[in-house]
């Protein structure tokens, strides 16, 4: 299927590069899009400009004590200045690395820009990383100073700091529980100095007020930062191993921001909601680049647990989420509709049917036609009666620039959002290109593509179907890994390792990672991710891994979406004790058999058998990346016996697994799983339950 | 001294008086007795809890633990001759609201929460009890009335933040799991800014994780804020891990008191708990 597409669309006639690398065709931005390249601006300079031009406008909001606390551009610069001057007192300077780990807070952002103002760079990390992974990153980056959110993160750092001699100072933001560190109860001689964020700021303030540095000291330091200096060391997703650190310069980020703003301009008063992990390049490209340069207000939730409520309160114009979040919203809406009153369900179903017709004109087969007047009227009514209240509940009521990236979102999901009137767009990129190089344009959203190329960027394709990128957003290389840098670049092009195609109308299609494409025993190539996204459109499937490399048939390992399946089971009086038990219940197996059978109707190569894994795929077990991407190689290796059982005629399989917890503890879990043949009902006829 | 003599001395110490006199204690009582008809629930108990100390009261059901707590915070009036002290002041004749305003906070085994109200309303209501703007300004929501409410809100939000109740702020209490409801109960008692916190089985019915959370909060309150804690608790493992001293009650009286590791090794205490001689 994927191979067919690749063969028909991936190979187009075009330029051939003179160099050793064979480039079959090159795409650039659509005609008419032109953005000048800026090569003399560092990010902190833009902050100075904002603070000078509109000092009293709101730059940031952070919900604290139940109230949105606001920070103007002037205060933003003031906080950065104080922290930078304090940071210098801890020996931080030119080309130093500030290692940061923490939740979405203005403080982490201030710390990044403070480090950049001193000529240094920020290396953000996922807050739920295990200590051993933190240690690997510390060894690679060798920072002297670390910013950590709270006691939990300080504990993880202390656990591994003995093996990282460079580490001398840990700066913590949240002082809850930190009194034990101040009195030395929790620290040992030789441990790094542990200091509060406010104390660092206070030292900076004292330096300025005592006259130790002049009032314009930091501004002059900022002027001396060259645009090509590294601003961020963004981690790669690490699907195939330890995450690498991508050098993103001020030049990269500023030019990315200018291109993004040119394609989708919004007024300065617009709101952005920052809730994706700050270590993810997708968050950095908006928070530190697009929103920062455009002057949009960035809003930070109170806590990870309050994100949904906080998002709803802000109702941002700009929202960028991972596919998982969009999938979860759809699953949540569908599950809630199933449990609502009959009347409301009827209204929703009517609206959905109108929305689906309308979406055909926006992103479907008829997108070159105008929807008829009756359909426009019906959709308007559906929007106000059904969609708007739903969008209000999830915080998308005011959303104008709505993006997803970091992985593919299924076509069904795309249609669902456009049916509701949400102008969802797919972007494609990776850490090495500041997050994105292609994006859908307003009037040309083609769900099977990832849109068109950014201004000033070129996307090429090799005869083998690998996509290549070059342009001002491309990194200069990996930090501390010259050999990886060398292998990533060839003749000025960045190898993306993504397998795709360039369409006749200049869109880019992505099928899968080069290494992930399955080749079945008859030679058919299948992009597993396209099958998995179809499965995940169902509200009962949270995660799926399709298997079939070198096999005659496809099979799948599934994770149920626990909340929705549990609610389904509750309504049918099915007794269960937790996730594992629920995956063994026959009615649940039958429910999921129906889901897979329904998905098979849209597949050229159907899934013949599947198993419901007795645990969820988990980043702590190395099965997912910290951004939630499946680490296919790890999973196939870990569940080798399970995969074998899916093909050797077994009816069930018992497995023992070691589960890792957040704090590094481990426990052994045993599970027995039934292998379900999609063509064989799980329940006897007389026990059949309603599962639709 | 022979081993027998040592054991006797230790046993005598465990059954001796308070290590701090009730008058000098953060909270204390002397000769407290409470009878309900023919039943003597608390029988001539002396107690002295030093400022900043964490004391646990253990004992079988019906030993008089909750009655003692109710006497300390003024819910029950003890029999004549009983004396209760709060920070050196004799408060035997003072009502419970007086004691609440002068530093005693209290959680309840049975969770006396406003179940149909949300978490914020539950804690705000308690906080409002502690404040008394004059009637006119409160009615007009003007001047001190308005200022007081803003200050109260800020204080209550700090408590919710401390106890990590952010996501439940606007959730109706009756829909919350027991572990969260117990945290709300604790938040409510903290809204009165107590110096001494009386906890009546604050971990009863909680799962392992919920219990762990509760201990974490109480330890922080004790160590960071210097709160004096008097806790009724059945889980001896928890008591031994967290409290500085423990008191064992049986049939209304105190049968042992001292450091937990000594008290739990006392044969008399073992007999009360296990019935084994």
UniProtKB/TrEMBL annotation, chain A:
InterPro entries: AMP-binding_CS, AMP-dep_synth/lig_dom, ANL_N_sf. Residues 49-479 form the AMP-dependent synthetase/ligase domain. It comes from the Archaea. GO terms for cellular component: membrane. The keyword Protein biosynthesis does not apply. Residues 1-25 are annotated as: Disordered. It holds the Pfam family AMP-binding. Keywords: ATP-binding, Nucleotide-binding. GO terms for molecular function: ATP binding; long-chain fatty acid-CoA ligase activity. This is Long-chain acyl-CoA synthetase. It comes from Halorubrum ezzemoulense (Halorubrum chaoviator).
Automatic annotation (TrEMBL), chain B:
Keywords: ATP-binding, Nucleotide-binding, Transport. GO terms for molecular function: ATP binding; ATP hydrolysis activity. Residues 27-276 form the ABC transporter domain. GO terms for cellular component: plasma membrane. CDD domains: ABC_Mj1267_LivG_branched (cd03219). It comes from Halorubrum ezzemoulense (Halorubrum chaoviator). This is ABC transporter ATP-binding protein.
């Amino acid at each position: 299927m994927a191979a067919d597409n690749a063969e028909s669309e991936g190979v187009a006639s075009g330029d051939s590069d003179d160099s050793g690398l064979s480039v079959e065709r090159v795409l650039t931005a659509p005609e008419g899009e032109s953005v000048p390249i800026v090569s003399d601006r560092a990010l902190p300079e833009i902050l100075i400009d904002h603070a000078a031009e509109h000092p009293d406008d709101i730059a940031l909001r952070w919900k604290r004590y139940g109230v949105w606390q606001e920070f103007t551009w002037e205060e933003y610069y003031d906080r950065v200045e104080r922290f930078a001057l304090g940071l210098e007192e801890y020996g931080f300077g030119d080309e130093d690395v500030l290692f940061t780990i923490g939740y979405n807070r203005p403080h982490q952002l201030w710390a990044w820009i403070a480090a950049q103002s001193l000529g240094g760079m920020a290396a953000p990390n996922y807050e739920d990383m295990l200590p051993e992974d933190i240690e690997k990153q510390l060894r690679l980056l060798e920072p002297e100073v670390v910013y950590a959110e709270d006691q939990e993160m300080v504990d993880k750092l202390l656990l591994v700091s003995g093996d990282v001699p460079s580490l001398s100072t840990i700066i913590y933001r949240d002082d809850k529980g930190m009194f034990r560190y101040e009195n030395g109860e929790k620290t040992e001689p030789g441990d790094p100095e542990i200091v509060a964020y406010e104390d660092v700021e206070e030292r900076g303030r004292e330096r300025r007020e005592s006259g130790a540095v002049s009032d314009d000291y930091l501004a002059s330091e900022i002027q001396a930062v060259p645009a090509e200096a590294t601003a961020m060391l963004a981690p790669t997703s690490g699907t195939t191993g330890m995450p690498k650190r991508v050098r993103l310069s001020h030049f990269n980020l500023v030019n990315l921001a200018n291109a993004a703003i040119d394609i989708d301009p919004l007024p300065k008063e617009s709101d952005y909601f920052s809730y994706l992990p700050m270590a993810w390049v997708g968050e950095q490209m908006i928070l530190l680049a697009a929103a920062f340069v455009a002057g949009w207000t960035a809003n930070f939730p109170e806590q990870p647990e309050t994100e949904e409520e906080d998002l709803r309160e802000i109702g941002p114009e700009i929202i960028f989420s991972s596919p998982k979040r969009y999938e979860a919203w759809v699953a949540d809406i569908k599950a809630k509709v199933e449990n609502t009153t009959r009347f409301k369900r009827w209204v929703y179903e009517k609206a959905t049917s109108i929305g689906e017709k309308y979406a055909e004109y926006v992103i479907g087969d008829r997108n070159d036609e105008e929807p008829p007047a009756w359909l426009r009227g019906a959709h308007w009514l559906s929007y106000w009666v059904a969609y708007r209240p739903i969008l209000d509940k999830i915080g998308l009521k005011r959303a104008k620039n709505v993006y997803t990236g970091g992985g593919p979102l299924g076509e069904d999901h795309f249609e669902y959002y456009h049916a509701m009137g949400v102008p969802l767009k797919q972007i494609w990129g990776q850490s090495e290109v500041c997050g994105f190089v292609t994006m859908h344009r307003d009037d040309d959203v083609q769900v099977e593509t990832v849109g068109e190329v950014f201004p000033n960027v070129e996307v090429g394709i090799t005869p083998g179907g690998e996509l290549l990128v070059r342009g001002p957003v491309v990194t200069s290389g990996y930090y501390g890994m010259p050999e990886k840098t060398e292998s990533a670049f060839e003749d000025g092009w960045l190898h993306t390792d993504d397998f795709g195609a360039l369409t006749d109308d200049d869109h880019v299609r992505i099928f899968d990672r080069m290494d992930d494409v399955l080749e079945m025993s008859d030679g058919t190539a299948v992009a597993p991710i396209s099958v998995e996204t179809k499965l995940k459109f169902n509200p009962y499937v949270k995660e799926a891994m399709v298997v079939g490399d070198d096999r005659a048939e496809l099979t799948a390992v599934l994770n149920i979406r626990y909340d929705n399946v549990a609610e389904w089971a509750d309504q049918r009086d099915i007794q269960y004790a937790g996730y594992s038990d629920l995956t063994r219940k026959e009615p649940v197996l039958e429910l999921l058999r129906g889901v897979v059978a329904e998905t098979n109707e849209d597949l050229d190569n159907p899934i013949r058998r599947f198993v419901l894994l007795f645990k969820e795929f988990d980043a702590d077990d190395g099965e997912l990346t910290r951004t939630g991407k499946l680490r296919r190689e790890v999973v196939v290796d870990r569940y080798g016996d399970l995969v074998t059982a899916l093909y050797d005629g077994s009816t069930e399989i018992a497995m023992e697994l070691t589960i890792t917890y957040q704090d590094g503890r481990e426990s052994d879990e045993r599970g027995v799983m039934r292998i379900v043949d999609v063509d064989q009902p799980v329940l006897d006829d007389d026990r059949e339950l309603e599962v639709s | 001294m022979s081993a027998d003599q040592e054991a006797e001395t230790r046993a005598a110490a465990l059954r001796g008086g308070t290590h701090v006199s009730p008058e000098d204690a953060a909270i204390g009582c002397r000769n407290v007795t409470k009878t309900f008809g023919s039943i003597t629930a608390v029988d001539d108990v002396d107690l002295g809890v030093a400022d900043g100390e964490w004391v646990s009261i253990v004992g079988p059901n019906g030993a008089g633990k909750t009655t003692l707590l109710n006497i300390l915070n003024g819910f029950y009036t003890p029999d004549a001759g009983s004396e209760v002290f709060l920070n050196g002041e004799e408060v035997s004749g003072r009502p419970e609201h007086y004691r609440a305003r002068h530093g005693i906070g209290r959680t309840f085994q049975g969770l006396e929460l406003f179940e149909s109200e949300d978490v914020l309303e539950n804690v705000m209501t308690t906080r409002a009890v502690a404040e008394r703007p004059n009637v006119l300004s409160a009615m007009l929501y003007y001047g001190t009335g308005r200022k007081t409410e803003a200050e109260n809100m800020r204080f209550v939000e700090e408590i919710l933040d401390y106890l990590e109740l952010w996501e439940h702020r606007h959730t109706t209490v009756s829909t919350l799991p027991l572990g969260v409801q117990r945290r709300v109960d604790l938040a409510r008692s903290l809204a009165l800014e107590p110096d001494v916190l009386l906890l009546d089985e604050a971990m009863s019915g909680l799962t392992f994780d919920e219990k762990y959370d509760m201990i974490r909060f109480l330890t922080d309150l004790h160590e960071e804020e210097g709160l004096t804690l008097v806790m009724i608790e059945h889980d001896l493992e928890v008591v031994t891990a967290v409290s500085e001293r423990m008191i064992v009650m049986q049939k209304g009286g105190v049968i042992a008191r001292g450091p937990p590791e000594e008290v739990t090794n006392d044969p008399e205490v073992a007999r009360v708990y296990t019935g084994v001689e």
